[in-house]
Design goal:
Layout (H helix, E strand, L loop, with lengths): L1 H20 L58 E9 L3 E3 L3 E11 L4 E4 L4 E4 L9 E4 L4 E5 L6 E5 L24 E5 L13 E2 L11 E2 L9 E9 L4 E3 L2 E2 L3 E4 L6 E8 L6 E4 L5 E7 L6 E4 L5 E8 L6 E6 L9 E9 L8 E6 L4 E9 L7 E3 L2 H8 L3 E8 L7 E3 L20 H4 L4 E3 L18 H4 L4
Parallel strand pairs: 1-3, 2-4, 3-5, 3-6, 4-7, 5-8, 6-9, 7-12, 8-12, 9-15, 12-16, 15-17, 16-18, 17-19, 18-20, 19-21, 20-22, 21-23, 22-24, 23-25, 24-26, 25-27, 26-28
Antiparallel strand pairs: 10-11, 13-14
Length: about 475
């Protein structure tokens, strides 16, 4: 009799199990803790039988659910949020079925590799000063963030309602800035620093945090791979007039791969290079509060096929500074498109300052105000131009007027010049006609290939 009862119970359980597993309804996130398909395990196909699926019951992937086979059924990965804080001291992988929350500064330590799967969403918590959220790849650490055009990796604010599997939320726009910090990658490549020291503290990180050091003597230093990444709504304030850039590159070496990166709605600069030798291509900056692409401390790499689109409160599309120490280095800009904004009170093409050295080649610009300019900001920069250390070639400008190219000199408090211009016979403005051509909108033969940016958030929002 007991055997009969047990057999009946077993048969009933089997019937319930088979009925549950035959349910093809997908209505929500996974709750496969009982091993049965109850209609809320999106993407689960129970095949012919089900057995318990580890610990998915909390809706969070805890590391013991991956690859679980529920008796012929591949249990769908659990979806949830994972909060990260402090130092990462061992290799780890962030997966695209979770949203990762940066609760303050998250630092990838030296000798450690952080891998981020394509399509992963990372959100920074709101905070300023020492509480500002950011992802920092310290010197000697690596990030392997290899998104794709179809599945980009997205850094955004916790206020963004974007969800797993999406490319954009619905509640924020390019006007929403400063909602979290940003991404900083630091390396051992050379930079030109005051006093000819070999290392300095990165902008945006308090001096007491030694993981903020960058600089060294290895031009081929490798900080990993960072491509098809979108960084949105960052630039949290950490001090008076001091915000975090969207993407900060401190002495990053040429062994690092950085391609196909966009920065949208950052309070400070979009992408800033502090020394280093890394080569980048397909960068896009839109609606930054300060400068689009910013070069400092003898950055000596090449930026190619890249775009800056000014927003309503942007400053310069390009801001370029030179060496601070005796080490000299020259940047190269190739095939750059600059898109102005008639409504912004600033909105300049470019400002070359502080002994700027390098080459700006194949630049296409349109949409700027009549009084926007390309500045040589002091006599040190002007001398570099005369010496061939700063050069321009093949600029095509819609609405070109020679007077957009300006050689400035130092002035006193009453705006009276305290030095004379030194680019004479002919002057800088006259020489500009040698490398700049007036073109009609869309008739350019230089500049970036905008088709390479169809994957971006900016393209989806009609920024270009």
């Amino acid at each position: 009799m007991k055997k009969l009862i047990l057999s009946s119970l077993l048969l009933a359980t089997l019937i319930v199990s088979m009925a549950s597993c035959s349910d093809d309804t997908n209505s929500g996130g996974a709750s496969c803790f009982n091993g049965l398909r109850d209609g809320d395990e999106t993407g689960v196909d129970c095949g012919g039988s089900c057995t318990p699926c580890a610990t998915c019951d909390d809706g969070i992937k805890n590391g013991d659910e991956e690859g679980i086979d529920c008796g012929g059924t591949n249990c769908a990965p659990c979806t949830g949020s994972v909060t990260k804080v402090g130092m990462i001291t061992a290799d780890e992988t962030w997966t695209n079925n979770n949203i990762y929350i940066l609760a303050g500064k998250v630092v990838v330590d030296e000798g450690v590799t952080l891998t981020i799967e394509p399509g992963t969403i990372i959100k920074g918590e709101k905070g300023t000063g020492s509480l500002a959220s950011a992802l920092i790849i310290a010197r000697g650490g690596k990030i392997m963030a290899e998104g794709t055009a179809d599945t980009p990796i997205i850094f955004t604010s916790i206020q963004d309602n974007i969800e797993v599997g999406q490319k954009a939320g619905t509640n924020l726009s390019e006007e929403d800035q400063g909602l979290w910090g940003g991404v900083l990658i630091l390396g051992y490549a050379p930079g030109s620093f005051r006093g000819d020291v070999k290392e300095v503290q990165i902008e945006g990180i308090p001096a007491g945090d030694t993981f903020g050091l960058y600089g060294g003597e290895d031009p081929e230093d490798n900080s990993g791979v960072f491509e098809f990444v979108s960084i949105r709504h960052g630039g949290a304030l950490i001090g008076e007039g001091n915000e975090i850039n969207g993407l900060t590159l401190g002495a990053v070496g040429s062994g690092t791969v950085i391609n196909n990166v966009e920065v949208v709605a950052n309070v400070d600069d979009g992408v800033e290079f502090f020394g280093g030798t890394v080569n980048t291509q397909n960068l896009l900056v839109w609606a930054q509060g300060d400068d689009g692409l910013d070069i400092d401390q003898a950055y000596s790499g090449t930026v190619s096929n890249s775009v800056v689109i000014l927003g309503n409160n942007s400053d310069h599309a390009l801001e370029i500074d030179g060496p601070e120490g005796s080490l000299e280095g020259e940047y190269t800009l190739n095939n750059i498109t600059l898109i102005g904004n008639l409504d912004t009170p600033g909105g300049e093409y470019a400002d070359h300052r502080s002994m700027a050295m390098g080459a700006g080649n194949n630049v296409y610009a349109y949409g700027f105000k009549d009084n926007s300019d390309v500045e040589l900001d002091n006599n040190g920069v002007s001398q570099n131009f005369l010496d061939g250390k700063l050069s321009f070639s093949n600029w095509e400008v819609v609405g070109f007027d020679n007077n957009i190219f300006v050689e400035k000199v130092a002035t006193d408090d009453n705006d009276v010049p305290t030095e004379d211009k030194i680019i004479l016979n002919p002057d800088f403005t006259t020489r500009a006609a040698n490398w700049t051509t007036q073109v009609n909108l869309g008739a350019n033969t230089v500049g970036a290939n905008l088709g390479d940016f169809n994957w971006t958030y900016a393209k989806g929002k009609g920024a270009f």
